[in-house]
Write a structure and sequence with these properties.
single chain, mainly alpha, Farnesyl Diphosphate Synthase, 2 domains, two-stranded antiparallel ribbon, 12 helices, 2 strands
Length: 296
């Protein structure tokens, strides 16, 4: 599932973030090396850069200086793109953003190294924040998000048999899949401002939001997922069918309701965040709601 641009007025800042990402990632390496060429190829189609937009928006609301805001935005976006390269390799997806995925164009080994390079570059980007004293906690928080994402990605598939815990397991897996890296732009800005209370609140809000995000994604992918071996795809509709012995249409309606419930929970939790920072999460929630409306 893809979002429309959140803040069209951020075009210039996003261009600066993209330049910074490429500069940090390539560094002193040979631009003609296969790994650098793979990174250039992948970053050449930047996508909507939702995470960097979140970082820039929240940073502006919190009064963070431009240099630090750009460093945090670049870190978040580099991590996201590293995960995309590795996901495509793991899932054997041939296309990413309408072009060849790195692994399908450059091979598995180069893709693995290109993803690792972006992962390492994310930490290097944090060295540009102006308050050097904040770097240790930013690095620690970034590692925590990466570790959670790795564990979520490595989680075993849901068991194929009906199980009363399947729905709870699904929601935990959905939150682990995208929640840590989606909440990181909020968390890094709040951590930079030395507000651990806001970091914890934003993580809880984004967790609920991420479940709704994954459900909307599953609804769009149900036909493809239904063609896989029974139980192999952790699609919410398939999960609900198995857990409740219900038909596809009823399961789909239940999935939409569950997504709306999680979006509502996310906004309730986010109400404790500073007013300006809530707006971007509310905007994202509205966009997911629009997607869900197409399944009712």
């Amino acid at each position: 599932m893809h979002f429309d641009p959140i803040r069209p007025d951020m075009t210039a800042q996003l261009a600066t973030v993209s330049q910074k990402m490429l500069s940090v990632a390539i560094g002193s390496g040979d631009p003609q090396s296969p790994v650098c060429q793979a990174v250039i190829h992948h970053l050449g189609t930047p996508g909507l850069r939702v995470r960097s937009q979140i970082a820039l928006h929240v940073a502006a609301c919190m009064g963070v200086d431009t240099q630090s805001a750009l460093a945090i935005a670049a870190c978040c976006e580099l991590l996201h793109n590293a995960s995309l390269i590795h996901d495509d390799l793991q899932d054997r997806d041939y296309l990413r953003r309408g072009i060849q995925a790195v692994w399908s164009m450059f091979g598995d080994d180069v893709a693995l190294c290109a993803g690792d390079l972006l992962l390492s570059a994310a930490y290097a980007a944090l060295s540009d924040v102006t308050d050097i004293a904040a770097v240790p906690r930013l690095v620690a928080q970034t590692h925590a998000a990466v570790a959670q994402t790795i564990h979520g990605q490595a989680s075993p598939a849901l068991p194929p048999h009906a199980d009363s815990d399947r729905l709870a397991i699904y929601q935990a897996m959905a939150a682990a899949k995208s929640g840590p890296l989606l909440s990181l732009p909020f968390g890094l800005v709040f951590s930079y401002c030395d507000r651990p209370d806001l970091t914890a609140t934003s993580a809880r809000a984004v967790r609920a939001f991420s479940i709704a995000y994954q459900i909307a994604d599953d609804l769009a992918d149900i036909e493809a997922d239904a063609r896989t071996a029974p139980g192999a795809a952790a699609n919410i509709v398939i999960v609900l069918e198995a857990a409740g012995s219900i038909d596809r249409r009823t399961a789909q309606a239940s999935a939409v309701l569950l997504a709306h419930t999680n979006l509502a929970n996310a906004l309730v939790i986010a109400a404790d965040l500073p007013d300006g920072t809530v707006a971007i999460l509310a905007d994202l929630a509205q966009r997911i709601t629009h997607k869900l409306d197409g399944y009712q």
